[in-house]
Amino acid sequence: MNTRKLNMQVGIIGAGNMGSMLAEYFAWLGCQVSITNSRGPATLAAYAFQKKGITAVTLEEVIREKQIIIIALPVKAVVKLPLHFLSGVEKNVMVIDTCNYFPTVRDPLIPDIENGLTESEWVSQQLGHPVIKAFNCMTALSFATRGLPENTTGRLCMPVAGDDNAHKDRLSEIINAFGFDTIDAGPLSNSWKLQPGAPAYCADTGKETITNLLQQSDYSMIKEYRHKMMQGAAAAIQQFGSLEAAVAQTGRPEKLTYLKTT
Ligand SMILES: NC(=O)c1ccc[n+]([C@@H]2O[C@H](COP(=O)([O-])OP(=O)(O)OC[C@H]3O[C@@H](n4cnc5c(N)ncnc54)[C@H](OP(=O)(O)O)[C@@H]3O)[C@@H](O)[C@H]2O)c1
């Protein structure tokens, strides 16, 4: 892929840490990027118009005539989207789910997930459209600052899970252009291996180690993984006041290091 010539229409739902950063990455690739938040485009004007190729739009507009749609919301916001919000979107549109489920500490309890459905399968059912799970299991800080050219020692790896192999291949090329290796973690039903608390979650390490961590993941531990993660999140909330404030401690880097240098 000519990495600076990806001429695609990309819609991003959520303009926080992940959404705004992904907007910059995709705009850098040459895409026309639209982004939305919960408060309307006017609240994003200062941010959006200073970044070439990024346009703040409404929730209705952000999914219109797109080739890629990215869900960059906390699960508590996914439940507020209209049920089957993407059911009218053509099935060949790549929908990327970056979401993580933080029950009780940020998100409501979702019985289907508690009963074993993967978080992304639930998101897919809510939206009424297939999804690829990606970008969820690297910290925003590492994603912003630790991209490296291909074949460089120390390059980090992002796992990608989903049922559409063509979409996974395409997305892997895109992530490679962003400065990261990828590994195919299998179908969406396997995406529990990418969820909060699982061994590969935010391990922020290279392909070989991520491969081993994915292999070491144990489905019978899924509740324990989540429980431990929520204990850690609860402690961070106690220390910093909210999960958002705890995440903010890692910093919202303004510069995308790898992109800045290529
Ligand atoms: N931060 C990380 O390091 C990281 C890493 C990997 C994955 N993730 C996951 O990625 C997801 C997003 O995380 P984040 O850190 O980017 O969250 P965030 O900074 O809290 O941003 C959330 C965004 O969602 C928007 N939003 C809320 N409800 C909405 C609605 N109904 N319609 C449209 N937009 C809505 C918010 O808009 P308003 O401000 O207008 O409410 C805000 O722009 C989460 O599931 C998180 O767990 C985060």
Give a quick set of tags describing it:
262 residues, 12% strand, Rossmann fold, two-stranded parallel sheet, alpha/beta, binds NADP nicotinamide-adenine-dinucleotide phosphate
Give an overview of the whole structure.
- The mean pLDDT is 93.
- It contains twelve helices and eight strands.
- It is globular, with a radius of gyration of 17 Å.
- It has helices at residues 17-28, 45-48, 59-62, 75-78, 111-114, 119-127, 140-145, 165-178, 207-216, 222-240, 243-248, 257-260, and strands spanning 9-13, 32-36, 54-56, 68-71, 94-97, 132-133, 157-160, 181-184.
- It has 262 residues and is of the alpha/beta class.
- The chain has one domain: Rossmann fold, CATH 3.40.50.
- The protein has a six-stranded parallel β-sheet with strand order 3-2-1-4-5-6, sandwiched between helices.
- It binds NADP nicotinamide-adenine-dinucleotide phosphate.
- NADP nicotinamide-adenine-dinucleotide phosphate (NAP) binds at residues 13-19, 36-39, 59, 72-74, 77, 80-81, 98-100, 136, 139-140, 244, 247.
